[in-house]
Amino acid sequence: MAKNFSQPVAPKPHPKPRTDALRNRLRILEVAKDAFTRFGADASLDDIAKQAHVGAGTLYRHFPTRDALIEAVYRSEVEKLAAAEHKFTESMAPIDALRAWMLLFVDHIAAKQIIAPALNSVVGGPAKLFEGSHGLVHAAIDALVKRAIESGEIREDLDPFDLLRALIGVAHVASGPGWQQSARRLVDILVTGSRPVK
Questions:
Q1: Which of 12, 33, 94, 185 could link 148 by a cystine bridge, Cβ 3.0 to 4.6 Å?
Q2: What is the DSSP letter of 9?
Q3: CB within 8 A of 183, min separation 6: which ones?
Q4: What is the pLDDT of residues 83-128, one digit of tens each?
Q5: Stretch among 133-137, 149-153, 170-174, 184-188 having the lowest mean pLDDT
Q6: Residue 130 carries which DSSP code?
Q7: Would you say residue 9 has pLDDT above 60?
Q8: Which residues have CB under 8 Å from 143's CB, separation 6+?
Q9: Is 195:155 a contact under the CB 8 Å cutoff?
């Protein structure tokens, strides 16, 4: 019986990344974040591979260049921050979710400052990288504030970005290691001050 060659051939689905490949990638990012924090942009990629328990080939397969790894570390931190909005929304009351996310944002600012020297080494500088992350961060806090307003726990006239500006401002005027504790205290002040006036 002759084969019917007119039948369209269904395209093969793209294979999903293997679980072990995803695990390797996440482990490399965690180790790389620590390495760039301690040693800056010149951290040894071979040492990162060893500490992540992968071969150098595996590291370069995921991150072909040093810049690619530095950018991926930063993007990973931003994605975690954005994803936390959903997690907190599902498990906490609106005002508690907003507070928890703002505390996490303080940690994010600290991580960004720590790896800043490595980010500055990226060809073209980190400005474009920071630009791409703004949308995710703004969308997260916007959703949290809207939810808190709808619940009646936050004033209706609150601008979500004012909260971000206040926390970023504390980080920019920081002159010592105590700025993080100051920023954490500011979170409570901001949350209290954002409640409706009775």
A1: 94
A2: P
A3: 106, 109, 167, 170, 171
A4: 999 999 999 999 999 999 999 998 888 777 767 777 777 766 666 6
A5: 170-174
A6: H
A7: no
A8: 85, 89
A9: yes
Spatial separation of the C-alpha atoms in residues 93 and 52, rounded to whole Å: 37
The whole-model pTM stands at 0.75
Residue 59: closest CA among 20, 16, 29, 39: 29
Half-sphere exposure of 151 (CA within 13 A, CB side): 17
Q: What angle do CA 52, 127, 145 make, to 5 degrees?
A: 85
Task: Let me know the angle formed at the C-alpha of 28 by 24 and 34, rounded to the nearest 5 degrees.
Answer: 150
Q: Is the dihedral of CA 145, 147, 150, 153 positive or negative?
A: negative
Report the amino acid identity of residue 36: F
Distance CA 100, CA 141 (A): 11
Q: Please state, in angstroms and rounded to a whole number, the distance separating the CA atoms of residues 21 and 29.
A: 12
Complete domains list, the chain, with CATH: 18-64 (1.10.10.60), 74-193 (1.10.357.10)
- Predicted local confidence at residue 58, as pLDDT: 93
Encoding tokens for residue 34? 């620590």
